[in-house]
Amino acid sequence: MPSWTLHTEFKFDAAHFLEGYEGKCGRMHGHSYKVHIAATSNQLNPSKYLDSADMVCDFHELKWAAKGSEKGGLDHSVLNEELPVNPTAERIAEFIHKETLQRIPDGIKLNVTVWETENSWVEYTDEDGEN
Ligand SMILES: Nc1nc2c(c(=O)[nH]1)N=C([C@H](O)[C@H](O)COP(=O)(O)OP(=O)(O)OP(=O)(O)O)CN2
Ligand SMILES: [Zn+2]
């Protein structure tokens, strides 16, 4: 069976604090987050701007979180106000995964990596998470 995997990276700047964290991360502070998304599919699809079935999905659909919060993204947001859970890197990756699945065609498997700092990152996937 054929398989295509798209890879894209983007950044966004955001503030957060970890609710209940007994240490400096419990205070409001900011990060320049880097995100890598891998999107794998066994078929190609049309998209908003391309009628023919020649893309896994549009790269732009994977990069929604890089937009400002006024446009539905996470850039220059306070993550505690955007996520329904404590905004750890783990939860941010899970949130981006879930939100991205809602923006792309069915049958695409996502792997989301979020760097909170240059040296600390998390990878998230969900075996049952294809839409
Ligand atoms: N598993 C997790 N651990 C921590 C998270 C997290 O999301 N998941 N988050 C934090 C804080 O948000 C903190 O800002 C992370 O920064 P840190 O790795 O401490 O980076 P620093 O640059 O501040 O590193 P120092 O070594 O402290 O200088 C904490 N843990
Ligand atoms: Zn932090």
From TrEMBL:
Residues passing through the membrane, by range: none
The protein's annotated pathway: Purine metabolism; 7-cyano-7-deazaguanine biosynthesis
Keywords: Lyase, Metal-binding, Queuosine biosynthesis, Zinc
Positions with a binding annotation for Zn(2+): 16, 29, 31
Cofactor(s) required, per the database record: Zn(2+)
Reaction catalyzed: 7,8-dihydroneopterin 3'-triphosphate + H2O = 6-carboxy-5,6,7,8-tetrahydropterin + triphosphate + acetaldehyde + 2 H(+)
UniProt key word Lyase: yes
Single annotated GO MF: 6-carboxytetrahydropterin synthase activity
InterPro entries hit by this protein: 6-PTP_synth/QueD (IPR007115), 6-PTP_synth/QueD_sf (IPR038418)
Co-factor note (free text): Binds 1 zinc ion per subunit.
Active site: residue positions: 25, 76, 116
Biological process annotations from GO: tRNA queuosine(34) biosynthetic process
Entry EC number(s): 4.-.-.-
Enzyme class at the top of the EC tree: lyase
The keyword Transferase is annotated on this UniProt entry: no
Entry-linked PANTHER family: 6-PYRUVOYL TETRAHYDROBIOPTERIN SYNTHASE, PYRUVOYL TETRAHYDROBIOPTERIN SYNTHASE
Family: Belongs to the PTPS family. QueD subfamily.
Protein name: 6-carboxy-5,6,7,8-tetrahydropterin synthase
